[in-house]
């Protein structure tokens, strides 16, 4: 038996040497360094996973920044762009309109604030997911679909709470379409000085500064409600598609080869290296899993995102009659304006945006984890 194994291993190594110029040779990753992490509470592991998550999120957001600007203008019913909403041709026309009025910079208006938000957001999200998943699913025996869903949802809630004010500032910057440069600090002061929630300001025991500080969390409740299906479904679907693509029938085509594993033994130990690390998927397989996960999660959470965007820009759209609108009231307004379709305005753009964004995010994250040996 051992002789056969030795021949098999030698044969696979000979094939690798003979095919160094072939396409298959390009699919071989370098050997991961020894000492893979077994304790995910290790500070070095936490910092590296946070760095990988932050870089992954920044790359993904930069990739789709122009589409993100147009989507926000559609979602918030900006008077200059509402006529373009609802079709792919409208998407193109909106892009031409932005180009003619503001040039290339118009597609990236508010992007600096986006990067300031997305790096800590993605870092916290991936750190939280790794840590929460490690607690909820300590071993293979505890791994269920429900536990996977809960891990992703809780990770999303942690990241949103830490970075929501930055998201609101980003939306305000993206919403402004006038021909002048908007500075971040004056915008922050303006948001703080806007009318606070009456339910907070009317309470004598709540300080006035705290009520105004809550302006930076306008639309937070629908965000939290929407994050439960979005983050939960996103991570759950990504893991599920990973499992499908690692099936023994698909693995020879979807899993990368590494030089410390016999290329013919993909079915052994769910494609793990000798050090115990799971081998990453091919580029096409990783992008496919991430893209499908993004589309699934976007569909589940999109109505809540519409409500959140409208709440975030409420003080801008009607500055004279503005009052702190609740989530149910905003839902009624949206339904009165456009019916049930109003909750899915811009969803087609959302698909075009989310598919490459989530695919890029998971791809960069998984690759960075591999090369940093975590």
Automatic annotation (TrEMBL):
Q: Where are the transmembrane segments?
A: 343-365
Membrane topology, record value: Multi-pass membrane protein
Protein localization:
Mitochondrion inner membrane
Region feature (Disordered): 1-28
Q: Does the keyword Lyase apply?
A: no
Residue windows of the Solcar repeats:
44-135, 143-244, 281-371
Q: Which InterPro entries match?
A: GDC-like (IPR002167), MCP (IPR002067), MCP_dom_sf (IPR023395), MCP_transmembrane (IPR018108)
A family per Pfam: Mito_carr
What is the residue range of the signal peptide feature?
A: none
Q: Name one GO cellular component term.
A: mitochondrial inner membrane
Q: Name one GO biological process term.
A: transmembrane transport
Homology family: Belongs to the mitochondrial carrier (TC 2.A.29) family.
Name by which UniProt lists this protein:
Mitochondrial carrier protein LEU5
Q: Which organism is it from?
A: Kluyveromyces marxianus (strain DMKU3-1042 / BCC 29191 / NBRC 104275) (Yeast)
- Gene transcribed to yield this protein: LEU5
């Amino acid at each position: 038996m051992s002789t056969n194994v030795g021949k098999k291993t030698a044969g696979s190594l000979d094939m690798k040497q003979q095919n160094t110029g072939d396409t298959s040779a390009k699919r071989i990753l370098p050997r991961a360094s020894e000492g893979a992490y077994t304790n995910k509470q290790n500070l070095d592991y936490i910092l590296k996973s946070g760095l990988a998550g932050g870089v992954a999120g920044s790359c993904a957001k930069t990739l789709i920044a122009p589409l993100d600007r147009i989507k926000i203008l559609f979602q918030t019913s900006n008077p200059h762009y509402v006529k373009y909403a609802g079709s792919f041709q409208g998407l193109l026309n909106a892009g031409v309109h932005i180009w003619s009025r503001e040039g290339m910079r118009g597609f990236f208006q508010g992007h600096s604030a986006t990067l300031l938000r997305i790096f800590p957001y993605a870092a916290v999200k991936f750190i939280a997911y790794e840590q929460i998943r490690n607690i909820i699913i300590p071993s293979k025996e505890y791994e269920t679909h429900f536990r996977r869903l809960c891990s992703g949802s809780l990770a999303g809630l942690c990241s949103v709470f830490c970075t929501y004010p930055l998201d609101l500032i980003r939306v305000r910057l993206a919403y402004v379409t006038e021909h002048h440069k908007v500075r971040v600090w004056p915008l922050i002061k303006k948001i703080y000085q806007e009318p606070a929630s009456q339910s907070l300001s009317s309470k004598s025991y709540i300080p006035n500064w705290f009520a105004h500080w809550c302006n930076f969390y306008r639309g937070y409740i629908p965000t939290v409600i929407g994050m439960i299906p979005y983050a939960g479904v996103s991570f759950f679907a990504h893991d599920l598609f990973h499992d499908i693509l690692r099936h023994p029938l698909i693995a020879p085509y979807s899993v990368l080869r590494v030089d410390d594993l016999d290329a013919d033994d993909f079915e052994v130990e769910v494609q793990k290296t000798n050090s115990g690390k799971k081998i990453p998927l091919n580029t096409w397989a990783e992008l496919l899993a991430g893209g499908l996960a993004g589309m699934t999660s976007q569909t589940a959470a999109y109505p809540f995102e519409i409500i959140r965007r409208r709440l975030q820009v409420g003080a801008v759209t009607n500055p004279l009659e503005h009052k702190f609108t609740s989530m149910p009231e905003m839902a009624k307004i949206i339904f009165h304006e456009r019916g049930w379709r109003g909750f899915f305005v811009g969803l087609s753009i959302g698909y075009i945006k989310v598919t490459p964004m989530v695919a890029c995010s998971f791809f960069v994250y998984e690759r960075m984890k591999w090369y940093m040996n975590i």
